[in-house]
Specification:
Layout: E1 3-4, E2 7-8, E3 22-25, E4 28-31, E5 46-48, E6 51-55, E7 59-65, E8 71-72, E9 76-81, E10 84-96, E11 99-101, E12 103-104, E13 109-114, E14 127-129
Length: about 130
């Protein structure tokens, strides 16, 4: 059993889970309870949506931390909710801390501009993947 500061680290052998109900698999945090995928295929892009914004004249932006894979401007991505497909769209922009990026990877907190998606179509907890 590992301890890091005050939080117990998950150990696959004893089935322990941190207090937030998530656990690590191949370096990617996986959420229990059906909100995130049960597993992440190697190399797959996964971003759990933390918030959704509508920017007038630009479109819809989803924010969150990339837990696995890489995304770049122009990539086709899938929006899922509780394992069910919501929509397929294209990434038209990536921004992190007021910097415009062309690509982003694991551990980065980013905003993704999505083409043709209304704010009402995406909810916090949805998953953006490729």
């Amino acid at each position: 059993m590992g301890w890091k500061f005050w939080k117990r680290e998950p150990n696959p052998t004893d089935g322990a889970r941190p207090e937030d109900g998530s656990w690590m698999q191949d370096g990617a945090r996986i959420q229990d309870g059906g909100r995130m995928q049960d597993s992440v295929p190697a190399g797959a892009f996964v971003l759990p949506v933390q918030d959704v914004f509508s920017i007038s004249g630009r479109g819809t932006v989803v924010t969150g931390e990339i837990v696995a894979g890489r995304v770049q401007v122009g990539d086709q991505v899938l929006i899922t909710r509780a394992g069910q497909r919501v929509a397929m769209t294209r990434v038209t922009g990536i921004e992190a801390f007021r910097k415009t990026l062309t690509t982003a990877g694991p551990g980065e907190n980013v905003g993704l501009m999505l083409e043709g998606i209304e704010k009402s179509q995406v909810l916090a907890g949805d998953v953006i993947s490729r």
